[in-house]
Amino acid sequence: MNVGILGSGVVGQTLGSGFIKHGHQVKIGTSNASKLNDWLKNAGSNASVGSFEEAAEFGDIVILAVKGTAALSVLEKAGSKNLANKTIFDTTNPIADAPPVNGVLQFYTDINSSLMEMLQSKFTDANFVKAFSCVGNALMVNPDLGGQKPTMFIAGNNEKAKSDVKNILHTFGWEIEDMGNVEAARAIEPLCILWCIPGFRENRWMHAFKLLKK
Ligand SMILES: NC(=O)c1ccc[n+]([C@@H]2O[C@H](COP(=O)([O-])OP(=O)(O)OC[C@H]3O[C@@H](n4cnc5c(N)ncnc54)[C@H](OP(=O)(O)O)[C@@H]3O)[C@@H](O)[C@H]2O)c1
Prior knowledge:
The chain is of the alpha/beta class. It has helices spanning 10-21, 37-43, 52-58, 71-78, 80-83, 115-122, 159-171, 185-188, 191-202, and strands spanning 2-6, 25-29, 47-50, 61-64, 87-90, 127-130, 151-156, 175-178. Strand 5, helix 6 (115-122) and strand 6 (127-130) form a beta-alpha-beta unit.
């Protein structure tokens, strides 16, 4: 599979290396290719770097891994024709620029909205699926949690796109809980706030959610 990644930060680089480890071809999109010199040096012959537009065009599937406030403009640069009918694996969070309050991140969305709904409403031909927004990058790809499999909550409107994301998550070592349609991002995105609290308060960052079921 060709994977186009929009985002040169730690999430884009981590997922890029993860997809390459599992046999895929990856192109990371950025407006600043020099940020990826080290990643490119180490990532091997299945890795490449381009513009946001080139990465989106390259991808059979597109990973969205940019700062939340930049997501809309990056997708506009990627081009709606390069996103149409594709699965958009959306890792982003609507984190405000204001600092956390006692370890609690601030969002610029309210509880009855979400970043993914806003993006889905602007790019109606693309199939967004929320995933990996509520775990640190260090645990995204085949995490070692002492034999326990963590749970990733996902949501999105398109069943084929969710099936693509489920296949990736299985390969990356996750259990999956499908929370339904795009509106469920209102519940999934704020899990990022909860996930980060032990990090900001106690410098503990190596944990993940698990849904216990009978
Ligand atoms: N860090 C984590 O462990 C983690 C875990 C779960 C979810 N997330 C979410 O995943 C997304 C990516 O996170 P990240 O930590 O990898 O990187 P980030 O610093 O949040 O985002 C970096 C990317 O955003 C782009 N961008 C565009 N305009 C920007 C601006 N004004 N300021 C900063 N960046 C801008 C950058 O573009 P250029 O490439 O052109 O520089 C770069 O590709 C975020 O939405 C974050 O909330 C992060």
